[in-house]
């Protein structure tokens, strides 16, 4: 598929696993140059090597998106390494746990400010045709288990990205927020929930219209004769 991304320069945060990794893989498959980060240097090095196999320029360095100045330095150095920035995907989350006050701070720092600081840093370097794709969650807009900080902080991104799109649209820069439903992959949140809280996993899986969680990778289109409820663990698209 030609998405018109060949030669574009894209920054993706949290791109050694899960959705961010798949986004980076898709970008290099389309011929884009990519800059990535995650907190663990050895995982970043392995991802840079694997992503580089497509032949485009791939740059990465360990960075905690919640670290403020280190994060801004990573953005600066990634843009320098790629020779500019056309696409920015602030993908990282602080997740969802039950420590009430600290989790609110962590989600504000990582999910909200990680997106806002990143957009503030890349926008002056973007020209017409640039695109920001932030990552929300259906938990921000739908009934979801409990009133966690994660859900509310992700909801803040809806207002922020909508109004940012209005501010930079006249410059030819697009801003979108993608809200995935539950996405399962090895070592990810739903994989852990399946292992440690199987009753919650099953309750949530049963709410999915197709009877299964999504996966970061694209799956074959189901044939019309396929059962509506696929077995858990079968390939599924997001
Ligand atoms: N999975 C789902 O069901 C789901 C559903 C809806 C929305 N989302 C959203 O999709 C996005 C990606 O989630 P995911 O589940 O695919 O991945 P994830 O498990 O949250 O994280 C995957 C990547 O982010 C890196 N990372 C985590 N914290 C970081 C930090 N503070 N600084 C830099 N890198 C960090 C991880 O590497 P290190 O551990 O080495 O840092 C890894 O590369 C998030 O915004 C999430 O809220 C996910």
State the helicity in percent bands.
40-55%
Record field, number of beta strands: 6
The major β-sheet equals:
6 strands, parallel
Q: Determine the N-to-C terminus distance.
A: 17 Å
CATH top level of the largest domain is Alpha Beta
The topology string of helices and strands comes to: EHEHEHEHEHEHH
- Uncertain segments of ≥5 residues (pLDDT<50)? 223-238
The CATH superfamily of the largest domain bears the name NAD(P)-binding Rossmann-like Domain
Give a topology summary.
Layout: E1 9-13, H1 18-29, E2 33-37, H2 41-52, E3 58-60, H3 69-82, E4 87-89, H4 100-122, E5 131-135, H5 149-168, E6 174-178, H6 189-196, H7 198-207
Parallel strand pairs: 1-2, 1-4, 2-3, 4-5, 5-6
Bound molecules: NADP nicotinamide-adenine-dinucleotide phosphate.
